[in-house]
Amino acid sequence: MNPERFAVLISGRGSNLKAILDYWDTQDPGSHTQRSTPALVISNRPEAPGLQFARDRGLPHVVVDHTQYPEREHFDDALTTCLEEHDISWVILAGFMRVLGPGFVSRYSGRILNTHPSLLPAFPGRDAMGQALAAGVKISGCTVHRVDGGVDTGPIVAQAAVPVYPDDDDKRLGERIRSAEHHLYPRVIAQVIAEALP
């Protein structure tokens, strides 16, 4: 059996990328992770620190710099070409700070996963932690969802809740949510891909 190859797309520190790679590194033979494999890392920012996690493992990594493509469609085309060259079946967004266009989403329909730092549908888009704190909620968390044509609107796959404390700020709440993401996201990726295979 050839495992399904997936790419992880990042823009920054790559903490979720590290969690994903660590999870695959530590799984026993015969686990559901054996049906998939991280095969490529793409960053839209040349200076993204998270690229070092790919370098450390000898994992193929590519920069597709969005600033070199004035039209979003051209950037999406460059991403698609890169994915095809590396025989990628699934796209995993991990702190990837670009909205993918409808053509790209349609091409990989049902095979793009994202994690978002809120309990969607609450607080989509940027600054989810700030939105949660401003709303005064007592519980926040993270959501893994399939990507559709909207921003954080795709079908929810899994969620994990974390408490919001009275003295929280963006940093403290963000650290708690990231910890939950690091536990949840790799397991959901492995499960979703395994369940999609015959």
Describe this structure in a few short sentences.
With 198 residues, the chain is α/β, with parallel strands linked by helices. It contains six helices and seven strands, in the order βαβαβαβαβαββα. It has a single domain (4-196), classed as Formyl transferase, N-terminal domain (Rossmann fold, 3-Layer(aba) Sandwich).
Structure commentary:
By secondary structure, the chain is of the alpha/beta class. The protein has a single domain, classed as Rossmann fold (3-Layer(aba) Sandwich). Strands 3-2-1-4-5-6-7 form a seven-stranded mixed β-sheet, sandwiched between helices. α1 crosses α6. The chain is globular, with a radius of gyration of 16 Å. The relative contact order is 0.17.
Query: Topology as H/E string?
Result: EHEHEHEHEHEEH
Low-confidence stretches: none
**CATH superfamily (homologous) name:** Formyl transferase, N-terminal domain
User: Count the strands?
Assistant: 7
Number of separate domains: 1
Per CATH, the architecture is: 3-Layer(aba) Sandwich
Helix content: 25-40%
Classify the beta-strand content into a percent band: 15-25%
Q: What order do the strands of the largest sheet run in, or round the barrel if closed?
A: 3-2-1-4-5-6-7
Q: What is the C-level CATH assignment? A: Alpha Beta
Oligomer: single chain
Largest sheet features: 7 strands, mixed
CATH fold-level topology: Rossmann fold
Q: Kindly, what is the distance between the CA atoms of the first and last residues, rounded to a whole number of angstroms? A: 11 Å
**Mean model confidence by pLDDT:** 94
